[in-house]
Design goal:
about 475 residues; mainly alpha; two-stranded antiparallel sheet; 19 helices; about 75% helix; about 0% strand; disordered N terminus; membrane; MFS_trans_sf; cell membrane; transmembrane; transport
Length: about 475
Amino acid sequence: MSSTHTHPATGEAHLGHVVFISAAAAMGGFLFGYDSAVINGAVTGIQKHFGVGNGTTAFVVAIALLGSAAGAVVAGRLADHLGRVRTMLLASFLFAVSGIGSMFPPNIEVLATWRVVGGVAIGIASVIAPTYIAEVAPTAYRGRLASFQQMAIVLGITVSQLANWALNQAAGGESTGHLGGVQAWQWMLGVEAIPALVYGLMALAIPESPRYLIADRREAQARRVLVEVEGEDVDLDARVAEIRAVLESARKPRLKDLTGGRFGLLPIVWVGIGASAFQQFVGINVIFYYSSFLWQSVGINESNSLLISLSTSIINVIGTVIAMTLVDRIGRKPLALAGSAGMAVALGTAAWAFSYREGSGDAATLDNTHATVALIAAHVFVLCFAFSWGVVVWVLLGEMFPNRIRALALSVAASAQWIANWAITVSFPDLADWNLSATYVIYAVFALLSIPFVAFCIKETKGRALEEMG
């Protein structure tokens, strides 16, 4: 009789434990989503409180993304030097202090500085959670556990929009309204300290990665963790030998290893950068960072615009669940192609509806019919993005590169994504002032261009072993 039958409860309990460990690591993803999107509700309050225009506001919103790019670059080294768990604790500390600092800024420059600190935490969290989950998850469950990160991000976005709306309502429908002597927009930014504290406590409750422990010559501890995450039946000698062999044969890839193609970098690296850029250039984060500003710019009041932001976040969660269900069944390419086509139609429709906007600035309005069309188009766009590019790009980036350059190529592609995100975020308010409809035409063109990109440049990775990628 096999040992799996002897301990029917052990397998269940041990899997439950692995799920808890993965969820604790993915809490970094929750804060990544929360911190990225919480600014959406605070934008109007920040503008009114500091008396700044769209250009300055865009700078404050977007500067966090440059912090994220820096955080993503240093995260790998921090994780190898401090360990995975201590790196998570560092990220939770940075999230907490940036939330509290952003709550009480004496001026706009100090607020921008705290946004950079939060951005660094986002960058670290975006790298450390998938790294840790991949290292502790049993092979059979790795794909599903890895998708915890994306789900945590979209839940973080949704909870931030729910908190924004609730705080706005409590302050009488104005983000500059007072609650306990502090303005609503300040509470929106400060509340982040609570999930940051939860993340820190959860990080203290999970074991260090066995891979890190073996690299750090703490083999006895690594053995205990392997039993904890893989069950009593694991062949410890074989697993330790396997991890050690991989560590010894692994040579740190250098930037030189990514070069050699016609345009400097290897073609596969350009494909990764291209996928990251297209994911951002369709303008998805305009919806998550500026939707309250966007809807107010067509005459919808602040309170209702925050409610719309919440509903788009819920659509985002639904789309992510669809992607997680389908990505291993129908493959990466068909999902990406369907999403691109849907996004192009939705963005084109939104551009058409916005072309009927009358007036400018605070006095701008959109008649009911076209406002309704724009609202539906925005929700369809978010759904099409969430079930396709939102998840598919991260899955592809984790799979498409050859083993020897995977970690480095992934960090280059992820940095490209933060920079593309920054470019879209910093340019939107001025573009919207210039011509909101034309801005959406630009995003629609990128969605259209992503179709031939997927068709001709992306190779399907479904069902292929990571070792086959070359």
